[in-house]
Design a protein that fits this description.
- A hairpin with a 4-residue loop joins strand 5 and strand 6.
- With 123 residues, the chain is mainly beta.
- The chain is built from one helix and ten strands, in the order βββββββββαβ.
- The mean pLDDT is 93.
- Strands 2-10-9-4-5-6 form a six-stranded mixed sheet. It has a four-stranded antiparallel sheet with strand order 1-3-8-7, with no helix packed on it.
- 36% of the residues are buried.
- It is globular and about 40 Å long.
Length: 123
């Protein structure tokens, strides 16, 4: 069983930035794609970014492309996501997720999911 532990988030001022980290207990073919999706109250899940370290590929949703960076630290099985220039529309619970398919991560349907971390953007 793969465990994902998320950290980061909290209260951020508009225009600020944040760093989310996801530590995986192990990396297998079933978890070769790791990333994040978010869910705001009353809204559907929204995949925002994913990385496949073994394949050297990254994906970003249009909502965060150009103002975010995802990177992996293979030595620690950790994936970090930094998002810049945050706005109120970024307020949501952010979930770390992993799957054999990046598409599953980006659609919020990944087989493995960590606990959510609240991100609130407000002044």
């Amino acid at each position: 069983q793969v465990q994902l532990v998320a950290s980061g988030g909290g209260l951020v001022q508009p225009g600020g930035s944040l760093k989310l980290s996801c530590a995986a207990s192990k990396v297998t073919l079933e978890t070769k794609a790791i990333g994040w999706f978010r869910q705001a109250p009353g809204k559907e899940r929204e995949g925002i970014s994913c990385i496949s370290p073994s394949e050297g590929e990254t994906w970003y949703s249009s909502a965060v492309e150009g103002r975010s960076t995802i990177a992996s630290d293979e030595a620690s099985n950790t994936v970090n996501l930094q998002i810049y220039n945050l706005g109120p529309e970024d307020t949501a619970v952010y979930y770390c997720a992993a799957d054999s398919s990046a598409q599953s991560v980006m659609t919020g349907t990944a087989n493995y999911r960590g606990q959510g971390t609240q991100v609130t953007v407000a002044s």
